[in-house]
Write a structure and sequence with these properties.
mainly alpha, 8 helices
Length: 192
């Protein structure tokens, strides 16, 4: 049988572990969000405020936020449960293993997320992201309605900035991307 002294030591050990995990995760999450905001600021100042959405709507941004927020919520929930409930510690050990694994996954996925963020700082990658979601339906709906969300305008803004910086290679490649996408849209519209 487990004595009360062992119960308190084990409970305190798990409380310390979870508390440390939450603190570590919140700190790393803060750094991650800060780096994301700096990347958004750099790219919007360099090219156009209209490209903010490629960062905020990216699946990488949504996924890393979901992982971190889920892990932090789980850890805080476990921390609170262990603190206030008088349930045998064995019940919480499996959950603390799960929590630790999710935390490690979140922390280890952060450098991969940073890679994608830094990759999006390159103008050609920005242009590729802006043009990849463009299709005939979106174009025709934006042309017929008078909205300020022109899907081509952010692309044009980035191209203009590359032209004014005399970055001929990116300008030519960006125009080529636009031309290829235009051909694909025209082919789809004539076939469909």
């Amino acid at each position: 049988p487990m004595g009360s002294a062992n119960w308190i030591e084990d409970k305190n050990m798990i409380l310390t572990l979870l508390s440390t995990l939450v603190t570590c995760e919140v700190a790393i999450y803060g750094i991650m969000v800060s780096v994301s905001l700096i990347a958004i600021q750099i790219s919007t100042e360099s090219y156009s405020y209209r490209i903010t959405n490629i960062f905020l709507k990216s699946s990488n941004f949504k996924l890393i936020n979901f992982i971190y927020l889920s892990s932090i919520t789980l850890n805080i929930g476990l921390l609170e449960s262990i603190s206030f409930l008088d349930i045998k510690i064995n019940y919480f050990i499996n959950y603390s293993y799960l929590s630790t694994n999710i935390t490690l996954f979140a922390i280890l996925s952060t450098p991969i997320y940073f890679y994608f963020v830094f990759k999006l700082l390159k103008p050609l990658n920005i242009l590729d992201c802006l043009i990849s979601n463009l299709d005939q339906i979106e174009l025709s709906s934006k042309i017929t309605s008078e909205t300020k969300n022109d899907p081509i305008q952010p692309y044009i803004d980035v191209l203009i900035r590359t032209i004014t910086r005399h970055d001929d290679k990116i300008t030519i490649e960006g125009i080529e991307l636009l031309k290829q996408k235009g051909h694909k849209i025209v082919q789809k519209s004539t076939m469909g």
